[in-house]
Amino acid sequence: QVQLVESGGGLVQPGGSLRLSCVASGFEFSSRAMRWYRQVEENEREWLATITADGRTTNYAEAVKGRFTISRDNAKNTVYLEMNSLKLEDTAVYYCRLIGSNSVWGQGTQVTVSS
Question: What share of the chain is helix, strand, coil (3-state, %, to 5)?
Answer without folding.
Answer: 5, 50, 45
